Amino acid sequence: MAKKTVATLQTSSKRLTKAMKMVRSPKSGAYTFTEAVMAPEEVNGWLAKQK
């Protein structure tokens, strides 16, 4: 089961969230991490996307 980590970053004017998830490579079967910084409202949609 993949784990997810969400850390909140706060800048002077905008509130941003850094989200990380594990994605399994179809070729080798190894797991890699993908990271993105986005608005907190977009995190659940990003985590729900496949690949």
Q: What is the helix/strand order?
A: EEEH
Structural class: mainly beta
For the report, how would you describe the main beta sheet? 3 strands, antiparallel
Overall residue-averaged pLDDT value: 80
Q: Per DSSP, what share of the residues sits in E-state strands of 2 or more residues?
A: over 45%
What is the radius of gyration computed over CA atoms, rounded to a whole number of angstroms? 13 Å
Anisotropy-based shape: elongated
> What is the count of β-strands?
3
Taking pLDDT < 50 over at least 5 consecutive residues as the criterion, the unreliable ranges are none
- Identify the strand order in the major beta sheet: 1-2-3
Count of DSSP H/I helices: 1
Helix content: 10-25%
User: How far is it from the N-terminal to the C-terminal residue, by CA?
Assistant: 15 Å
Short description:
The protein has 51 residues and is mainly β. It has one helix at residues 43-48; strands at 4-10, 15-24, 31-38. It has one helix and three strands.
